[in-house]
Amino acid sequence: MTTKSARTFAVGDVLTGRPVEKVTRTQIVRYAGASGDFTPLHHDEPYTVALGNPAVFAMGMMTAGFLSRALDEWFGPGNLVRFKIRFLNRVWPDDSLRFTGTVRERDEAAGTVTVDLQVLNQKDEAVIGGEAVARV
Amino acid sequence: MDVQPSGTPVEFPIERGKIAEFARAIESPESVYFDREAARAAGFENVPAPPTYAMVSAFFSGPGSRPRIDIDMRYALHAEQEFEYFAPVVAGDTLTGRTRLAGQHEKQGRRGGTMKFFVLETEYTNQRGEKVLAVRQTLLQTAGTVKE
Which of A53, A61, A78 sits opposite B48 (nearest CB)? Predict the structure, then answer.
C-alpha cells in the first residue's frame, strides 16, 4: 500500500497545483530527450515555421506530465486509478500554466474520488481538460 | 486504407535512471522517483514510474510496435490520452506492451476538409504476467496546418 494524502477531499473542493511560470524551449527539449518524442514540430523551429506555425510548441504530454505532478501533490504517488486528458489548445514558449482539479464525486465504497482537471494558460484558455480517479 | 490491427509486442524495461530523467523533465519534486529508500518508505518495492511514464515506451520502441495507420505526421495532433492503472510499475520490472488500433473515424472539419481520428490502445503486462497498465491514445490528422 502506498502512502496516501492526509488531505480530505469533499465534493466541490478546488485543488491547485504548482504552476509553470513560463514555458521554455529548454523544458520542451528536455522533455523530448526524456520521453523520446523527437517529432520536429516540437524542437525544429525552421521546420515548424515552414509548416505555418509561429514557433515550436510543447508536446501535449509534457503539459500532461506537469499536470501529473499536481496529481502526485494532491493524492501522493501511486494512488491513481485512471487519468484522462483532452488536448484543447497548444502550449507555446513563454506561456504560463495553472493546474486545477475540482472534486466531482466521492465513492466511499471504493475509497476513491473523481476530479475534473483543467490546465489554463495566461489568457485563461483551457489547454487541457480531463479527469482523474484516485484512491484517497 | 492499409491498417494492421495490432503491432508486435514490445519489451519495456523499467529503469531507475530513465525514471529520474523523466521525473526531472516534468520537474517533479517527489523523492520517490529519485531515491529508492524514499520509494520503499512510501510503500513501493522500488522507484515507481510516474503517471505518464509509459509514453517513453511509445517513442523508444522500434518499427512495427504500433499498427500502421494512414496518418500524415506533419499534420497530426494528439487529441486525447488516457491511462488506467491496475498495479504498481517500479524500476526493475520488465513490461510487455501490445498496441492495437482500437478505433478510427472521420469527421468534417469546421473549416472544411476531413479530420481523421485514430485510437491506439496499448496494454502492458509485467514479468509476472499481471496486467499493470492500459494506455489509450487518440491521434487526429487535421485537414491542414491548424491556424491559431
Answer: A78
pLDDT band with cut points at 50, 70 and 90 for residue A1? low
Task: Give, as one character, the DSSP assignment of residue B85.
Answer: E
Q: Count of A–B CB contacts within 8 Å?
A: 122
Chain A nearest-CA residue for B84? A82
**Range A117-122 contact pairs with CB under 8 angstroms and sequence separation of 24 or more:** A117/A67, A117/A85, A119/A63, A119/A66, A119/A67, A121/A89, A121/A91, A121/A95, A121/A96, A121/A97, A122/A95, A122/A96
Pair B98, B134: CB distance under 8 Å: no
Contact at CB, B79 and A30, closer than 8 angstroms: no
User: Which of B124, B95, B136 is closest to B12 using CA atoms?
Assistant: B95
Contact flag A39-B73 (C-beta cutoff 8 Å): yes
Q: DSSP secondary structure string, A20-60?
A: BS---HHHHHHHHHHH----GGGT-HHHHHHTT-SS----H
Express each pLDDT in A30-61 by its tens digit: 999 999 999 999 999 999 999 999 999 999 99
pLDDT band at A71 (very low <50, low <70, confident <90, very high): very high
Q: What is the ipTM of this complex?
A: 0.96
Q: What is the pTM of this model?
A: 0.92
The model's pLDDT over B41-78, given as tens digits with 9 standing for 90+, comes to: 999 999 999 999 998 887 777 777 888 888 887 778 88
List Cβ neighbours of A10 (8 Å cut-off, separation of 6 or more): A103, A106
Cα–Cα distance between B143 and B113 in angstroms, integer?
5
Side chain identity at A63, as an amino acid letter? Answer: T
